[in-house]
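Form P-L/3: holo structure prediction, ligand thiamine diphosphate.
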Amino acid sequence: MTSYSNEHLNQHDFRRLYRATCLIRRTEQRIAELYPTDCIKSPIHLSIGQEAVSVGVCDVLRNDDWVSGTYRGHALYLSKGGDLKAMMAELFGKIDGCARGKGGSMHLIDIEAKVIGTSAVVASNIPVALGYALTEKLRGRDNIIVCFMGDGATEEGVFYESLNFSALHDLPILFVCENNGVAIHNPIDKRWASRALGQRVEGYGIGYQETEDSDIFEIREIAAAFAEKIRDGDGPKFMHCHTYRWHEHVGPLQDTDAPYRSIKTDTIWRERDALKHLESRLSCEDVEDIQRTVERQIADAVAFAEASPFPPEQELFDHVLA
Ligand SMILES: Cc1ncc(C[n+]2csc(CCOP(=O)(O)OP(=O)(O)O)c2C)c(N)n1
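OUTPUT (holo model):
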Protein backbone atom coordinates (compact mmCIF):
# COMPACT_ATOMS: atom_id res chain seq x y z
CA MET A 1 0.00 0.00 0.00
CA THR A 2 1.07 3.60 -0.49
CA SER A 3 2.10 6.02 2.23
CA TYR A 4 -1.56 7.02 2.17
CA SER A 5 -2.47 3.70 3.77
CA ASN A 6 -4.96 4.25 6.57
CA GLU A 7 -2.74 2.24 8.91
CA HIS A 8 -0.52 5.30 9.21
CA LEU A 9 -3.27 7.77 10.01
CA ASN A 10 -2.57 9.77 13.15
CA GLN A 11 -4.26 12.51 15.19
CA HIS A 12 -2.99 15.14 12.78
CA ASP A 13 -4.75 13.31 9.91
CA PHE A 14 -7.98 12.89 11.88
CA ARG A 15 -7.97 16.60 12.70
CA ARG A 16 -7.45 17.51 9.03
CA LEU A 17 -10.24 15.18 7.85
CA TYR A 18 -12.59 16.37 10.59
CA ARG A 19 -11.87 20.05 9.80
CA ALA A 20 -12.62 19.50 6.10
CA THR A 21 -15.84 17.58 6.78
CA CYS A 22 -16.98 20.00 9.47
CA LEU A 23 -16.38 23.00 7.20
CA ILE A 24 -18.65 21.52 4.52
CA ARG A 25 -21.36 20.39 6.95
CA ARG A 26 -21.54 23.69 8.82
CA THR A 27 -21.28 25.80 5.66
CA GLU A 28 -24.19 23.95 4.09
CA GLN A 29 -26.22 24.12 7.30
CA ARG A 30 -25.63 27.89 7.37
CA ILE A 31 -26.66 28.11 3.70
CA ALA A 32 -29.86 26.22 4.55
CA GLU A 33 -30.55 28.68 7.40
CA LEU A 34 -29.93 31.70 5.19
CA TYR A 35 -31.92 30.42 2.23
CA PRO A 36 -35.40 31.53 3.37
CA THR A 37 -34.14 35.13 3.75
CA ASP A 38 -33.67 35.28 -0.05
CA CYS A 39 -30.08 36.51 0.14
CA ILE A 40 -29.06 33.43 -1.84
CA LYS A 41 -29.97 33.98 -5.45
CA SER A 42 -29.73 30.49 -6.95
CA PRO A 43 -31.12 27.03 -6.30
CA ILE A 44 -29.02 25.00 -3.84
CA HIS A 45 -28.27 21.27 -3.95
CA LEU A 46 -26.80 20.28 -0.61
CA SER A 47 -24.26 17.47 -0.12
CA ILE A 48 -24.95 16.97 3.59
CA GLY A 49 -24.56 13.24 4.27
CA GLN A 50 -22.32 12.76 1.22
CA GLU A 51 -19.25 14.72 2.40
CA ALA A 52 -17.06 11.64 2.94
CA VAL A 53 -16.68 11.06 -0.80
CA SER A 54 -15.31 14.51 -1.65
CA VAL A 55 -13.23 14.80 1.51
CA GLY A 56 -11.79 11.27 1.27
CA VAL A 57 -10.81 11.61 -2.38
CA CYS A 58 -9.47 15.18 -2.21
CA ASP A 59 -7.42 14.39 0.89
CA VAL A 60 -4.98 12.35 -1.20
CA LEU A 61 -4.78 14.67 -4.21
CA ARG A 62 -1.91 17.01 -4.93
CA ASN A 63 -2.45 20.75 -5.21
CA ASP A 64 -1.90 20.57 -8.97
CA ASP A 65 -4.51 17.84 -9.54
CA TRP A 66 -7.76 19.09 -11.05
CA VAL A 67 -11.32 18.27 -9.97
CA SER A 68 -14.54 18.65 -11.91
CA GLY A 69 -17.98 18.35 -10.36
CA THR A 70 -21.71 18.67 -10.55
CA TYR A 71 -24.32 21.18 -9.39
CA ARG A 72 -24.17 19.36 -6.01
CA GLY A 73 -20.68 20.76 -5.77
CA HIS A 74 -20.14 22.68 -2.50
CA ALA A 75 -18.44 19.68 -0.87
CA LEU A 76 -16.07 19.06 -3.75
CA TYR A 77 -15.20 22.75 -4.18
CA LEU A 78 -14.39 23.16 -0.49
CA SER A 79 -12.58 19.81 -0.20
CA LYS A 80 -10.22 20.83 -3.01
CA GLY A 81 -9.47 24.12 -1.27
CA GLY A 82 -11.88 26.37 -3.17
CA ASP A 83 -12.20 29.82 -1.60
CA LEU A 84 -15.14 29.89 0.83
CA LYS A 85 -15.64 33.66 0.63
CA ALA A 86 -15.81 33.54 -3.17
CA MET A 87 -18.27 30.65 -2.97
CA MET A 88 -20.55 32.44 -0.52
CA ALA A 89 -20.45 35.65 -2.58
CA GLU A 90 -21.32 33.57 -5.65
CA LEU A 91 -24.40 32.17 -3.92
CA PHE A 92 -25.38 35.74 -2.99
CA GLY A 93 -25.03 36.75 -6.68
CA LYS A 94 -22.31 39.27 -5.81
CA ILE A 95 -19.43 40.56 -7.90
CA ASP A 96 -16.76 38.97 -5.69
CA GLY A 97 -18.28 35.55 -6.31
CA CYS A 98 -16.10 32.94 -7.99
CA ALA A 99 -18.14 33.39 -11.21
CA ARG A 100 -18.70 37.13 -10.61
CA GLY A 101 -22.15 36.35 -9.24
CA LYS A 102 -23.54 34.95 -12.47
CA GLY A 103 -23.10 31.22 -11.89
CA GLY A 104 -24.68 30.68 -8.49
CA SER A 105 -24.38 27.55 -6.40
CA MET A 106 -24.40 25.21 -9.39
CA HIS A 107 -21.46 26.84 -11.23
CA LEU A 108 -18.52 27.04 -8.85
CA ILE A 109 -15.00 27.51 -10.11
CA ASP A 110 -11.59 28.18 -8.54
CA ILE A 111 -8.77 27.87 -11.03
CA GLU A 112 -6.09 28.53 -8.39
CA ALA A 113 -7.36 25.60 -6.29
CA LYS A 114 -7.71 23.58 -9.51
CA VAL A 115 -11.48 23.34 -9.40
CA ILE A 116 -12.28 23.20 -13.13
CA GLY A 117 -15.91 23.99 -12.50
CA THR A 118 -19.28 22.48 -11.67
CA SER A 119 -22.27 22.29 -13.97
CA ALA A 120 -26.06 22.24 -13.81
CA VAL A 121 -26.32 19.99 -16.84
CA VAL A 122 -26.11 16.34 -15.82
CA ALA A 123 -22.92 14.65 -17.17
CA SER A 124 -21.78 17.77 -19.03
CA ASN A 125 -18.68 18.06 -16.84
CA ILE A 126 -17.45 14.62 -17.93
CA PRO A 127 -16.21 15.51 -21.45
CA VAL A 128 -14.78 18.78 -20.11
CA ALA A 129 -12.74 16.83 -17.53
CA LEU A 130 -11.65 14.53 -20.34
CA GLY A 131 -10.34 17.53 -22.27
CA TYR A 132 -8.28 18.60 -19.26
CA ALA A 133 -6.94 15.04 -18.92
CA LEU A 134 -5.94 14.95 -22.58
CA THR A 135 -4.27 18.35 -22.28
CA GLU A 136 -2.24 17.39 -19.20
CA LYS A 137 -1.17 14.15 -20.84
CA LEU A 138 -0.08 15.90 -24.04
CA ARG A 139 1.90 18.36 -21.93
CA GLY A 140 3.69 15.44 -20.28
CA ARG A 141 2.61 16.34 -16.75
CA ASP A 142 1.92 13.82 -14.01
CA ASN A 143 -1.01 15.57 -12.36
CA ILE A 144 -4.39 13.87 -12.59
CA ILE A 145 -7.99 14.93 -13.17
CA VAL A 146 -10.78 13.70 -10.91
CA CYS A 147 -14.24 13.78 -12.43
CA PHE A 148 -17.18 13.53 -10.01
CA MET A 149 -20.69 12.60 -11.13
CA GLY A 150 -23.98 11.39 -9.70
CA ASP A 151 -25.48 7.98 -10.48
CA GLY A 152 -27.86 9.76 -12.88
CA ALA A 153 -24.93 10.86 -15.05
CA THR A 154 -24.09 7.23 -15.84
CA GLU A 155 -27.32 7.05 -17.88
CA GLU A 156 -26.12 9.67 -20.35
CA GLY A 157 -24.58 8.69 -23.68
CA VAL A 158 -21.59 10.96 -23.15
CA PHE A 159 -20.68 8.93 -20.06
CA TYR A 160 -19.99 5.82 -22.20
CA GLU A 161 -18.28 7.82 -24.95
CA SER A 162 -16.01 9.32 -22.30
CA LEU A 163 -15.16 5.96 -20.73
CA ASN A 164 -14.21 4.68 -24.16
CA PHE A 165 -12.15 7.74 -25.12
CA SER A 166 -10.32 7.88 -21.78
CA ALA A 167 -9.41 4.18 -21.94
CA LEU A 168 -8.41 4.35 -25.61
CA HIS A 169 -6.01 7.22 -24.89
CA ASP A 170 -4.89 6.09 -21.40
CA LEU A 171 -5.93 9.43 -19.95
CA PRO A 172 -4.88 10.41 -16.41
CA ILE A 173 -8.41 10.58 -15.06
CA LEU A 174 -10.16 9.18 -12.00
CA PHE A 175 -13.95 8.97 -12.34
CA VAL A 176 -15.88 9.11 -9.06
CA CYS A 177 -19.57 8.19 -9.09
CA GLU A 178 -21.34 9.45 -5.95
CA ASN A 179 -24.25 7.04 -5.93
CA ASN A 180 -26.87 8.38 -3.52
CA GLY A 181 -29.45 5.95 -4.89
CA VAL A 182 -31.76 8.55 -6.46
CA ALA A 183 -31.91 11.01 -9.31
CA ILE A 184 -34.23 13.72 -7.97
CA HIS A 185 -36.84 11.29 -6.51
CA ASN A 186 -36.30 8.40 -8.89
CA PRO A 187 -34.57 5.30 -7.44
CA ILE A 188 -31.95 3.32 -9.32
CA ASP A 189 -34.12 0.23 -9.91
CA LYS A 190 -36.54 2.36 -11.93
CA ARG A 191 -33.66 3.72 -14.05
CA TRP A 192 -30.87 1.14 -14.42
CA ALA A 193 -31.58 -2.05 -16.40
CA SER A 194 -28.73 -3.63 -14.45
CA ARG A 195 -26.94 -2.62 -11.27
CA ALA A 196 -23.67 -3.99 -12.61
CA LEU A 197 -22.00 -0.63 -13.17
CA GLY A 198 -18.64 -2.30 -12.49
CA GLN A 199 -19.08 -4.65 -15.43
CA ARG A 200 -19.97 -1.76 -17.71
CA VAL A 201 -16.89 0.19 -16.65
CA GLU A 202 -14.54 -2.81 -16.69
CA GLY A 203 -15.82 -3.62 -20.18
CA TYR A 204 -13.71 -0.67 -21.33
CA GLY A 205 -10.65 -2.00 -19.49
CA ILE A 206 -10.94 0.59 -16.73
CA GLY A 207 -9.95 -0.39 -13.17
CA TYR A 208 -12.96 -0.25 -10.85
CA GLN A 209 -13.62 -0.26 -7.10
CA GLU A 210 -16.89 0.04 -5.21
CA THR A 211 -17.44 1.26 -1.64
CA GLU A 212 -20.69 0.32 0.07
CA ASP A 213 -21.01 2.44 3.19
CA SER A 214 -19.26 5.73 2.45
CA ASP A 215 -16.40 4.92 4.84
CA ILE A 216 -14.14 7.95 4.52
CA PHE A 217 -11.01 5.92 5.29
CA GLU A 218 -11.77 3.28 2.67
CA ILE A 219 -12.59 5.95 0.10
CA ARG A 220 -9.35 7.73 0.87
CA GLU A 221 -7.26 4.58 0.56
CA ILE A 222 -8.80 3.51 -2.75
CA ALA A 223 -8.42 7.00 -4.18
CA ALA A 224 -4.76 7.07 -3.13
CA ALA A 225 -3.99 3.72 -4.75
CA PHE A 226 -5.81 4.69 -7.94
CA ALA A 227 -4.18 8.13 -8.09
CA GLU A 228 -0.75 6.55 -7.84
CA LYS A 229 -1.52 4.11 -10.65
CA ILE A 230 -2.89 6.86 -12.86
CA ARG A 231 0.24 8.97 -12.28
CA ASP A 232 2.31 5.94 -13.28
CA GLY A 233 0.55 5.95 -16.65
CA ASP A 234 -1.88 3.12 -15.95
CA GLY A 235 -4.82 4.98 -17.53
CA PRO A 236 -8.26 5.82 -16.16
CA LYS A 237 -9.79 4.36 -13.01
CA PHE A 238 -13.29 4.40 -11.60
CA MET A 239 -14.62 4.65 -8.04
CA HIS A 240 -18.27 3.86 -7.37
CA CYS A 241 -19.14 5.18 -3.90
CA HIS A 242 -22.54 4.45 -2.41
CA THR A 243 -23.70 7.32 -0.26
CA TYR A 244 -26.83 9.09 0.94
CA ARG A 245 -28.11 12.65 0.85
CA TRP A 246 -29.93 13.85 3.95
CA HIS A 247 -31.62 16.86 2.39
CA GLU A 248 -34.14 17.26 -0.40
CA HIS A 249 -32.85 17.13 -3.98
CA VAL A 250 -32.88 20.90 -4.30
CA GLY A 251 -33.50 23.36 -1.50
CA PRO A 252 -32.72 23.78 2.20
CA LEU A 253 -35.15 21.29 3.75
CA GLN A 254 -34.92 17.68 4.90
CA ASP A 255 -37.69 15.74 3.16
CA THR A 256 -37.51 12.80 5.57
CA ASP A 257 -41.23 12.01 5.09
CA ALA A 258 -41.15 12.03 1.29
CA PRO A 259 -42.53 8.84 -0.31
CA TYR A 260 -39.20 7.97 -1.96
CA ARG A 261 -37.50 7.77 1.45
CA SER A 262 -37.50 4.90 3.92
CA ILE A 263 -36.99 5.49 7.63
CA LYS A 264 -34.94 2.31 7.85
CA THR A 265 -32.50 3.39 5.12
CA ASP A 266 -32.35 6.89 6.53
CA THR A 267 -31.43 5.60 9.98
CA ILE A 268 -28.74 3.26 8.64
CA TRP A 269 -27.07 6.04 6.70
CA ARG A 270 -27.21 8.59 9.49
CA GLU A 271 -25.40 6.04 11.68
CA ARG A 272 -22.61 6.02 9.11
CA ASP A 273 -22.12 9.79 9.31
CA ALA A 274 -18.45 10.54 8.63
CA LEU A 275 -18.50 13.67 10.75
CA LYS A 276 -19.66 11.74 13.80
CA HIS A 277 -17.07 9.00 13.25
CA LEU A 278 -14.22 11.47 12.82
CA GLU A 279 -15.34 13.41 15.87
CA SER A 280 -15.17 10.24 17.97
CA ARG A 281 -11.44 9.95 17.16
CA LEU A 282 -10.61 13.37 18.56
CA SER A 283 -10.38 14.97 21.98
CA CYS A 284 -13.12 17.40 23.09
CA GLU A 285 -10.55 20.22 22.98
CA ASP A 286 -9.65 19.43 19.36
CA VAL A 287 -13.31 19.23 18.34
CA GLU A 288 -14.17 22.52 20.02
CA ASP A 289 -11.12 24.23 18.59
CA ILE A 290 -11.91 23.08 15.05
CA GLN A 291 -15.58 23.98 15.39
CA ARG A 292 -14.66 27.49 16.59
CA THR A 293 -12.32 28.03 13.63
CA VAL A 294 -14.92 26.73 11.18
CA GLU A 295 -17.67 28.97 12.59
CA ARG A 296 -15.37 31.98 12.29
CA GLN A 297 -14.52 31.12 8.67
CA ILE A 298 -18.21 30.82 7.80
CA ALA A 299 -19.16 34.05 9.57
CA ASP A 300 -16.35 35.86 7.73
CA ALA A 301 -17.53 34.41 4.41
CA VAL A 302 -21.13 35.50 5.00
CA ALA A 303 -20.01 39.00 6.03
CA PHE A 304 -17.83 39.16 2.89
CA ALA A 305 -20.76 38.11 0.68
CA GLU A 306 -23.08 40.63 2.32
CA ALA A 307 -20.60 43.48 1.86
CA SER A 308 -19.82 42.66 -1.78
CA PRO A 309 -21.84 44.66 -4.35
CA PHE A 310 -24.04 43.17 -7.06
CA PRO A 311 -22.41 43.20 -10.50
CA PRO A 312 -23.22 46.29 -12.59
CA GLU A 313 -25.91 45.97 -15.22
CA GLN A 314 -23.45 46.51 -18.08
CA GLU A 315 -21.69 43.22 -17.09
CA LEU A 316 -24.84 41.22 -17.72
CA PHE A 317 -23.72 39.74 -21.04
CA ASP A 318 -19.98 39.54 -20.30
CA HIS A 319 -18.52 36.01 -20.23
CA VAL A 320 -21.85 34.56 -21.38
CA LEU A 321 -21.64 32.03 -24.19
CA ALA A 322 -24.71 30.93 -26.10
C1 LIG B 1 -28.87 16.72 -19.20
C2 LIG B 1 -29.81 16.94 -18.06
N1 LIG B 1 -30.93 16.19 -17.99
C3 LIG B 1 -31.80 16.37 -16.97
C4 LIG B 1 -31.54 17.33 -16.00
C5 LIG B 1 -32.53 17.51 -14.85
N2 LIG B 1 -31.91 16.97 -13.63
C6 LIG B 1 -31.41 17.79 -12.72
S1 LIG B 1 -30.75 16.97 -11.43
C7 LIG B 1 -31.16 15.48 -12.08
C8 LIG B 1 -30.83 14.21 -11.34
C9 LIG B 1 -29.43 13.76 -11.47
O1 LIG B 1 -29.15 12.78 -10.51
P1 LIG B 1 -27.72 12.33 -10.16
O2 LIG B 1 -26.82 12.42 -11.34
O3 LIG B 1 -27.81 11.00 -9.52
O4 LIG B 1 -27.16 13.42 -9.14
P2 LIG B 1 -27.67 13.82 -7.68
O5 LIG B 1 -28.68 14.93 -7.86
O6 LIG B 1 -28.24 12.63 -7.03
O7 LIG B 1 -26.46 14.35 -7.00
C10 LIG B 1 -31.80 15.65 -13.30
C11 LIG B 1 -32.29 14.53 -14.11
C12 LIG B 1 -30.36 18.09 -16.13
N3 LIG B 1 -30.05 19.02 -15.22
N4 LIG B 1 -29.50 17.86 -17.15
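COMMENT: The chain has one domain: 6-315.
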